[in-house]
Amino acid sequence: MRDNRRAEIETEAGTARITWWSAEEPWAVLALGHGAGGGIGTRDLCAIARTLPADGVTVALVEQPWRIAGKRLAPAPKTLDTAWRGLWPALAEPGLPVVAGGRSAGARVACRTAGELGAVAVLALAFPLHPPGRPESSRAAELLGAGLPTLVVQGGNDPFGKPAEFPEGPYGMVEVPAADHGFAVPKRAGITEEQTVMTITDAVRKWLRPLRE
Question: Of 112, 137, 110, 138, which Cα lies nearest the Cα of 124?
C-alpha cells in the first residue's frame, strides 16, 4: 500500500525527494533511483512500488535533485552519487536492511555506492552496459564492482546492452523478452505490457525472498 508520505532531503547536490510505498510489516527497504531520461513514473519502478509491499518490502522511490529542480539533463555521475549518499540516512532510518537499486543511471549509482553505504544487495534495472552502438565503452566494472548480491533485469532488445553482451560475474540476470531500455515491447512480439511487468516484478520478488532468511 502507498501511504502518500513524501520526504524532501537536503543533500550537498541539492534537494532530493523520497516517495514511500510502505509495507504493513516490513522486513526490508528497497530504494530505487530513476534514470537520466525520466523520473520515478516509469513502468518498472511503478510496478515494483505497487507490488513489493505485499511481500513485506517497503519501496522508496528516489528523485534526484536535478529532477526536483526541473532540469532536463542529469549532472555528472559524481554529483548523482553525492546526492544518493546524502539521502541514504533517510533510507536507513527505519532500521531495516536496505537494498540499493535503480533503473539505468540509477542502477549505476546503486552499484557504485552500495558497498560503502551498507546496502545488503543491489537491484539493477535496465543497466546501461554501454552507450548505444558503442560496446567498447563498457561500464561492466561498475556492475562487477558492487561486491554484493546483485540482480540485473534487462530487456532482451536493450540498445544499451543486451543480456548476451554482459560479462560473466557474480550476479543474477533475468531477461525481459523483446523489451527495450524502457521495457517497452513491440506489438509484433505478441507480448502484452501486463506480461512484461509481471516478468519484472516476479523476478524481483523471487530474488528478494532468500535475503529474508
Answer: 110
